[in-house]
Every structure is written in C-alpha cells, then in structure tokens.
Amino acid sequence: MLPRLVAFDLDDTLAPSKSALDPTMIDLLVKLLGVTEVCVISGGQFGQFQSQIIDNLPEISTDNLARLHLMPTCGTQYYRSDDQGWTQVYAENLSDDQKARALGAVEQTARRLGYWESETWGPILEDRGSQITFSALGQAAPVAAKVGWDPTGEKKNALREAVQALLPDLEVRSGGSTSVDITRQGIDKAYGMIRLADLTGVGLEDMLFVGDRLDENGNDYPVKVLGVECIAVEGWPDTAALLEDLIPRYVTV
Ligand SMILES: [Mg+2]
C-alpha cells in the first residue's frame, strides 16, 4: 500500500539544519507532489519554510502546489497555497501571560545551569506566537557550532527538565540540536499530524512520516508513538534515497 500522504520533518530530514533544500531534494519533492499529498511539519516558524523550501521551488502547477501542506511550529500553524499565494489557514497562539512565564523560566534556568552563552548568532529567545524557542547559540548559529555545543544532548535535556518543572501547565520539549521549545500542553508533532488528518481527510493509517529524530528524546518521536508508519533517516541524502525508491512505485501502480 502506498501512502496517500507523506509527511516530513524539515531540519536534518529534508535539508541540513536551517539551510535551503538541495536542488536534488527540491526536484524529488516536486515529483512527489505530482503523485501524492505532501506535508512538512517542523518546530520552526513559517519564515524558515519560506527560505528553506518555498523560495527554492520552481514554477509548478497550482494543482500540484495545492498538495503541499505546511505545518510550522508543530502544526499550531497551517499554511496552504492557492491563487493568492501562501495563506495562513489558522494559528493557535500562546496567551501573553503564558509567553511571559515561558520566557522568564527558560532564561532564568539557562543562566543558573551556565548554558546562557554570551557569544551567539542572533537572539537566544524567540517568540514564535504559538511557541517560545530557546536556541543556545542563537537562531542563526552554524551547524558545526551547534553540534559542538551539546554532542550528547545532556545540556538540552537537563534544561528541558528543569524548565518543565517551573511550567507545569505548559509543555517543554527538546527541539533541534541546541533548542528547547515551549508550547501549550499537548502540542507536538503528533498533535500536528492529528490536525492534518482532520484537515485533509487522509487517515493516519494512510500516512508515512519521515524524520531524523524518532529516538525517544527526539522531536519526531511523538509521531511514532501515535502509530503512524515512520521511517528514520540521518540526513537529507537518506531521504532522497528513500524518495528515489518510493516515487516510481506510484507511477507503476
Ligand atoms: Mg529534524
């Protein structure tokens, strides 16, 4: 059975973290849109989808582009393309009080644990509307620096646990390699996938999810727990190889 919808994580699944998709991957995504529905779901915000994916897409038919479902910030925002371009279908934001408490708790805890860096690439804290994000080295840190900051994930997990204890009514989750995301409770990629099933009418059993962090501490793990068929990759070349195999199977059916 071929999936009626293929959903992808973005960073380290379709592209290196915060980087544009390789032309090979763009080409494969366009081919996949020709045969089935496609979703990209990430903790990142829409601006990243724009610079990493949308800005690099070639001219493709409106029908094919309409098969692309974009879910920034774990599906608390949802974007579709139509005649008017990319449109936000909905956004579920944190309240001002929730934002203020989240920003305060994560800064205070990072400073206490000695994780509040003075040399960063852009701001450490970011208000993404539906999500507060802590990025240890700043939003624009190069991949090599991020990999070196916390190779075992120990710092990130310690920060996550300590902040969660301060914010019992919110959810604190490990994001990318150096980031921690704070959202309303119950917001993770599983939440986004359930919303996606509602919005598209495609059942979870007819979906395939591809991600690089399907391990127990990873931000893709909730999708696996949800029971969606998942394939783990270690970077976009793995995903490209998977699509090279998958796409021709639609054509020959
Ligand atoms: Mg990822």
TrEMBL record:
Write the protein's name. HAD-IIB family hydrolase
UniProt KW Transport keyword: no
The keyword Zinc-finger belongs to this UniProt entry's keyword annotation:
no
- Which keywords has UniProt assigned to this entry? Hydrolase
Q: Which Pfam families has this protein been placed in?
A: Hydrolase_3
Q: Which GO terms describe its molecular function?
A: phosphatase activity
